[in-house]
Amino acid sequence: MLGSFSASDFFPHIGWIIDMFKGLQGRRVKSVQDFDAFYEQMFDLHNKEKQEGSDDFVDLLLRFEKEETVVGNDKLTRNHIKAILMNILLGGIDTSAITMTWAMAELAKNPRVMNKVQSEIRSHIKNKERISFDDTDKLEYLKMVIKETWRLHPPTPLLLPREVMTEFKINGYTIPVKTRLFVNVWAIGRDPDTWKDPETFLPERFMDSNIDAKGQNFELLSFGSGRRICPGMYMGTTMVEFGLANLLYHFDWKLPEGMTVEDIDMEEAPGLTMSKKSELLLVPLKYLDH
Ligand code: HEM
């Protein structure tokens, strides 16, 4: 819905009529209602089934509401909580899941890299039932695999739209104030002037390089940059490192019977976020080392 074309964005006064005829308005209302019902259900569960000592971020927000905590100039209301949850759920889950899917697809396509990253994880983490957040710190090659995944498959390929505040010139074109601007980080990540063999999945390219995805190196802008940079950057990185480390430590991954690496389809689905178009099918085989 967020990525769909909306006439009211371009014609604020009359565009809503077109949106209404196209059914966009109705779909928006339905999606807000669905989200609302979901949040209400989540609040109910938290109120009813709260276990002694457990405290997650929904509990925390509900407590702020109960205690009438003032944030900025306003008391934190139920609507604020819903808005915060929407940011976290929409911004955080899809993007991290998309990264993990592309990483697993690239690893399945590149057995050399798969073996290398699994050896790193298994040599650092021995006899553990579950990998902890601290364990991922020392997994340097895994971090390179994730950066390389972000280079080729940035989950938000055009970042969030920006609006030009001051007129400027680029390549002979004058860009007027209020122009809507998209930054194509997908293209930046595959630019042959910046990256050698840009279409090749090669985590080693980050070995002796200072490039990271924290918004200061414009070659790799998976989390965006500037004031609109992803506020969940560290949480997102941690979730992806932690999720992949567990998947790769506990299982070996084989292709389904009769399938070869050439059959793994890397086509992208269109949208605000860029997921893999077809499902990734892999067979997990339990790795028994503990
Ligand atoms: C691998 C994980 C993630 C990736 C690749 C990612 C990527 C991005 C990108 C590219 C943007 C736009 C930045 C810009 O335009 O400059 C963004 C915005 C945002 N992200 Fe993330 N993100 C991830 C995880 C998370 C997590 C875990 C959260 C929250 C817990 C989160 C919350 C948000 C929010 C709220 C915004 C909008 C900020 C605004 O309105 O300006 N993201 N993210």
Structure description:
The structure is a single chain. The protein is mostly helical and 290 residues long. It has a domain at 94-286: Cytochrome p450 (Orthogonal Bundle). It has helices at 7-10, 15-21, 24-48, 57-66, 78-109, 111-124, 140-152, 185-189, 233-250; strands spanning 70-71, 74-75, 162-163, 168-170, 173-175, 180-181, 251-254, 283-286. Strands 1-2 form a two-stranded antiparallel sheet. A two-stranded antiparallel sheet has the order 3-6. A two-stranded antiparallel sheet has the order 4-5. Strand 1 (70-71) and strand 2 form a beta hairpin. The structure holds protoporphyrin IX containing FE (HEM). Protoporphyrin IX containing FE binds next to helix 5 and helix 9. Protoporphyrin IX containing FE (HEM) binds next to helix 5 and helix 9.
Keywords:
transmembrane, 8 strands, Cytochrome p450, 290 residues, Cyt_P450_E_grp-I, binds protoporphyrin IX containing FE, 9 helices, mainly alpha
